[in-house]
Design goal:
Length: 534
């Protein structure tokens, strides 16, 4: 329990909304630690505390080393993308993210320096820090200030964030829900913890999901009682973002009708908008994009500069790490957008492959190099972090419909997306014809992900891979779908072919490992309960 004890006393952040240049900014600068009664004396103080918890998503102080590629939730998602088959490193660079890409990071569980500097330690530490903090807010339910609806909204955010944190933990540290309900889960804490408290055991996957669902339903109840008010700032979770969480959770659990219903309700806040082609090349680093449901706004003095997402992704500045170690799309996935007759606007997210004898491995012109996610302010590599957008909800709804044997509805949703991705009428007609030629059976998916779709369900999953490339942590889907992948296919542009580590279905190499510090500090978790290495 050492990781949790480290953050027992709730840290309050001076986070206030202020107006400058006609824009609202969320300021999140740490101040001091104070007692619960002071924190929750009124609604403004309580909301300030919530603001600080959102800041925890993109701080960079969860590990004792390697902070340049361990800067909160976005670094976790990027690592989980590189652990899959759709993203690659063009070159090893200085080694940042290399251990994620070649799957060796998951095996680094020793109790020496690399233990507390590892990806697994950072992810565990971040998510349990969030849980420890929101537990203090949840414990004050009914005691915050005098404005009932404002207080309910604040506590609802805390419940939603606890559900979010446990959902990310169980997806990262264990195999998917279906078929693994009785496997070891992660420790569940629902009350404020103090130094000396006994650590919890891993329990089961089922028990973790029971808590996740209880939390998200309580959040939705409170948001509803408070009037379903839309978020005052893009960083805040509101009723509709919580519905997005519910859709994600239900999809993993195979509750397809629930997933569909929740995803469609989340999209309703956006009036079911889909980004237009002109918006697709703006870098996905501005919270004001029309289909943003939840995003952290980052202003220049909050950017970690070198230890930041856009320093690793943006290739335009030679001083950026991304310039020397570009992130690229696999040429197999790129090829799925170039099928005869199509004119996919998302091709603009990537460089084409080089047909000449010269191969560029660094800089902005690297083969298949990504241009999708770029800094909003290049000089400081500053950009907002979009955590959820409407297109994800559309694709969850489409997958749910396909799994419910309602292929016609799934195709309608796919065409809603394609109508804003295929740039000519002829291309949309070609895509429609292709879609209508697919089978409608809901069958077991191919063991290997690099297989062209033959059914509507498989096409939904392919579009999810393309549309959400670099956004949601691809390896979580690989685990959910119980698939494996092969990087060493004919003509592969992957630079790490994974000769050592297993990339087959449900590989242990896809899981983060419980940090050694947790075994050292929690007598209720034995070292024999460690996740498999391969």
């Amino acid at each position: 329990m050492r990781t949790i004890i480290k953050y027992l006393v709730l840290t309050v952040f001076a986070a206030t909304l202020w107006t400058a240049c006609s824009e609202d900014y969320l300021e999140t600068n740490p101040t001091d630690k104070v007692s619960g009664p002071v924190i929750f004396a009124d609604e403004n103080a309580a909301q300030t505390t919530i603001d600080g918890i959102y800041y925890l998503l993109y701080r960079a102080r969860y590990v004792t080393g390697n902070t340049a590629h361990a800067y909160g939730y976005q670094s976790t998602l990027l690592a989980q993308d590189l652990m899959g088959e759709d993203m690659l490193l063009a070159t090893n660079g200085s080694g940042w993210y290399l251990w994620d890409y070649d799957l060796s990071y998951t095996a680094m569980i020793s109790n020496n320096t690399i233990g507390t500097a590892s990806r697994s330690y950072g992810v565990w530490n971040m998510l349990y820090t969030i849980i420890s903090n929101v537990n203090y807010i949840i414990a004050e339910d009914g005691k915050i200030g005098s404005n009932g609806n404002v207080a309910k909204n604040i506590v609802a955010q805390a419940y939603a964030m606890r559900a979010f944190a446990y959902f990310e933990l169980i997806q990262g540290f264990q195999k998917t829900y279906l078929g693994h309900e009785n496997d070891p889960g992660v420790p569940v804490y629902t009350e404020p913890t103090r130094s000396g408290d006994e650590g919890k055991p891993r329990g089961t996957v089922e028990e973790v999901y029971t808590q996740i669902n209880a939390d998200i339903q309580r959040a939705l109840e409170l948001f509803t009682e408070a009037g379903k008010t839309q978020q005052a700032h893009s960083s805040y979770v509101d009723y509709f973002v919580a519905k997005g969480f519910e859709a994600r959770i239900a999809l993993v659990q195979g509750r397809n009708q629930d997933a569909y219903n929740a995803a469609e309700e989340a999209r309703s806040r956006l009036s079911r908008k889909v980004l237009q082609p002109a918006d697709l090349t703006k870098g996905f680093s501005d919270k004001s994009l029309a289909t943003t449901l939840w995003a952290a706004e980052v202003i220049p003095d909050q950017s970690a500069i070198y230890g930041s997402l856009y320093c690793h992704l943006d290739t335009r500045n030679p001083q950026a790490y991304g310039y020397g170690a570009p992130k690229c799309i696999s040429n197999w996935l790129y090829g799925q957008m170039t099928k005869p007759g199509l004119a996919d606007a998302r091709l603009e997210w990537f460089n084409p492959g080089n047909t000449s004898s010269t191969t560029t491995v660094t800089g902005p012109n690297v083969n298949y190099g990504q241009k999708k996610r770029m800094a909003r302010v290049l000089s400081d590599w500053v950009g907002d972090f979009i955590f959820m957008r409407g297109e994800e909800m559309l694709l969850i709804a489409a997958e749910a419909k396909a799994r419910l044997n309602q292929a016609g509805d799934a195709k309608t949703l796919l065409l809603e997306l394609a109508g804003n991705r295929q740039t000519t009428a002829a291309a949309l007609t070609a895509y429609t014809s292709y879609l209508n030629g697919l089978g409608t059976a809901v069958t077991l998916l191919p063991a290997n992900t690099n297989t062209a779709p033959t059914t509507v369900l498989e096409e939904v999953l392919l579009q999810r891979r393309i549309e959400l490339w670099g956004e949601i942590g691809r390896v979580k889907d690989i685990l959910r779908l119980k698939q494996g992948y092969e990087r060493d296919y004919s003509g592969s542009n992957h630079t790490q072919k994974l000769a050592t580590y297993n990339s087959g279905p449900e590989s242990g190499a896809f899981l983060f490992k419980i940090p050694q510090s947790e075994f050292d500090g929690n007598k209720n978790i034995l070292s024999s309960e460690q996740n498999p290495l391969n």
